[in-house]
Inverse folding.
């Protein structure tokens, strides 16, 4: 029997983590394998979290949960998914969206962006989407991908550079009130004096 | 406010989650109750779960080690090497969008650059003074002609220096203490079989390019690879004779940045090459001799020398380069041997020092006209410190 906090403390903690992070884990899975399987993956992630509740880093659960979701998806893909279903994010990125007349402009933009994402490497794409869509800092994204933060930083900036070139847009990090959510500000870049 | 068309805004709007509805709260509650209803200890022996637990334990350990490593770094969280790469890549991004210098028609144009070097070095070879310590400031006006001829007009301030084998310069100095002239041809490292044109100047002082780095001309600039890996290979080849590969690569990349010919994409890739060099450290936000602010990164080489560059991350311009030995055995009684070179913006001008469209160059150190009578160009004022 593993040692750890008594059950009456573990259950409230899992409940809190579940309430705080379920949507993020579900969204991560849904972006990559679609909503049909996302619920199963999210549930499995929290089963693992419940098993390892003592090891979950306090106040830093999200990267751990996302990394677990990533592993679940990879494992399940190997075992169960048909070939077509294995084309997870790649497939989704290349498929045109269902166009509604009043959404034509937005859909066109989404297709353009997803087309650009499809042109960069899978590893870089995952890094960019972990930051841009899943809201992870670069350090947390590196944790999920199992690489060094420095490596992630270099890859992330290179990927952004490439995307900006493809899309012909400014890739400067945002400034102003929303800047705090940008990984460039989450991970301090201030110089060492 | 975030630019509506910035990359971040586009990525945010393209998030597929906007089209996906998460399960309702009631469904989530059932999932949670189902999980909590399973005793963790029972699942611990399950083979499938055990494998995941092992993996999860490893991941947690790696994550903890990473967090610990970050926490132990100087300054709390910032790794200078990583931070150096970030700043260099920021310069790379800016350089990629910089204005490209291009040859206009068939008009004979020059790229005029100004460099100011402060040289503190130990000299030998000066007659009757085999060991002399000098401090001097040189302002270089470097005119690079399309035929690969380089013309330097050097205006020394203070006591000029003459290194080993520099009798020619010493002779020039004795004739004209106000100015030194140098003229050389590019060493063709892109096509070693290409015949270089003869210098069209009247100088008799043509010498080989003293720098082993690439000296691309207008034509070469268009042939330089724009992809980082290909450029790195070329730069490595250009310094294949260097004792230290890292030092050779660094030198070649920095001197490429100091050269006005390469395109914006090549300059961008050159910064990426430097960013990938191991052990480059960020020194931080500094001011160069001309008072311009930039980021400084530095590297120590195996021979005990240290190089530092200052660059502007907003436009990818190389501002200053400092080099010197950190090896005490190489120190003189006067201290370490150092050299600081400050680079000013380059512009294309015609022989009269005007832009191709006839407009006057308005930059601080330009707008000078050459002297047709004696072929050489008038020197400008030394830069304000």
């Amino acid at each position: 029997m593993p040692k750890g906090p008594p059950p009456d403390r573990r259950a409230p903690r899992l409940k809190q983590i579940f309430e705080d992070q379920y949507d993020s884990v579900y969204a991560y899975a849904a972006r990559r394998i679609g909503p049909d399987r996302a619920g199963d993956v999210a549930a499995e992630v929290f089963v693992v979290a419940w098993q390892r509740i003592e090891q979950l880093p306090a106040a830093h659960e999200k990267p751990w949960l996302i990394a677990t979701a990533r592993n679940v998806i990879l494992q399940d893909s190997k075992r169960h998914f048909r070939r077509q279903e294995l084309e997870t994010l790649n497939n989704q990125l290349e498929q045109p969206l269902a166009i509604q007349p009043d959404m034509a402009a937005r859909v066109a933009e989404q297709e353009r962006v997803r087309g650009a994402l499809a042109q960069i490497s899978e590893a870089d794409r995952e890094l960019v989407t972990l930051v841009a869509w899943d809201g992870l800092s670069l350090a947390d994204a590196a944790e999920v991908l199992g690489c060094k933060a420095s490596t992630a930083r270099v890859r992330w900036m290179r990927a952004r550079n490439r995307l900006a070139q493809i899309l012909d847009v400014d890739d400067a990090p945002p400034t102003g009130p929303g800047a705090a959510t940008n990984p460039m500000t989450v991970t301090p870049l201030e110089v060492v004096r | 406010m975030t630019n509506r068309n910035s990359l971040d805004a586009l990525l945010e709007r393209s998030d597929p989650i906007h089209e996906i509805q998460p399960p309702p709260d009631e469904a989530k509650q059932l999932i949670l109750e189902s999980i909590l209803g399973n005793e963790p200890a029972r699942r611990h022996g399950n083979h499938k779960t055990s494998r995941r637990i092992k993996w999860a334990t490893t991941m947690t350990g790696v994550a903890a080690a990473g967090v610990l490593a970050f926490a132990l770094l100087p300054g709390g969280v910032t790794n200078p090497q990583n931070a150096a790469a970030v700043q260099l890549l920021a310069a790379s991004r800016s350089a990629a969008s910089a204005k490209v210098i291009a040859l206009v028609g068939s008009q004979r144009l020059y790229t005029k650059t100004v460099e100011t070097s402060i040289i503190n070095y130990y000299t030998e070879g000066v007659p009757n003074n085999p060991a002399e310590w000098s401090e001097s400031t040189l302002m270089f006006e470097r005119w690079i002609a399309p035929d690969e001829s380089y013309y330097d007009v050097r205006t020394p301030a203070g006591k000029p220096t003459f290194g080993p084998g520099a009798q020619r310069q010493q002779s020039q100095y004795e004739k004209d203490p106000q100015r030194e002239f140098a003229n050389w041809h590019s060493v063709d490292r892109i096509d070693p079989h290409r015949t270089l044109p003869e210098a069209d100047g009247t100088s008799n002082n043509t010498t080989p390019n003293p720098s082993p780095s690439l000296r691309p001309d207008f034509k070469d600039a268009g042939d330089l690879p724009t992809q980082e890996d290909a450029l790195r290979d070329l730069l490595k080849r250009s310094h294949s004779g260097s004792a230290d590969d890292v030092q050779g690569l660094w030198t070649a990349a920095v001197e490429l940045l100091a050269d006005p010919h390469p395109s914006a994409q090549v300059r961008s890739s050159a910064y990426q090459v430097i960013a990938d060099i191991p052990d480059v450290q960020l020194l931080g936000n500094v001011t160069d001799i001309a008072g311009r602010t930039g980021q400084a990164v530095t590297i120590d080489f195996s021979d005990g020398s240290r190089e530092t560059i200052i660059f502007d991350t907003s436009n990818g311009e190389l501002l200053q380069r400092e080099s010197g030995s950190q090896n005490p055995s190489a120190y003189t009684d006067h201290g370490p041997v150092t050299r600081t070179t400050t680079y000013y913006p380059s512009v294309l001008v015609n022989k009269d020092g005007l832009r191709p469209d006839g407009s006057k160059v308005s930059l601080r150190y330009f707008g000078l006209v050459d002297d047709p009578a004696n072929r050489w160009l008038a020197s400008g004022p030394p830069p304000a410190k």
Remarks:
- Residues 40-78, 99-215, 361-385 of chain B have pLDDT under 50 and may be disordered.
- The two ends of chain B are 37 Å apart (CA to CA).
- The first strand of chain B starts at residue 110 and ends at 123.
- Chain B has ten helices and eleven strands.
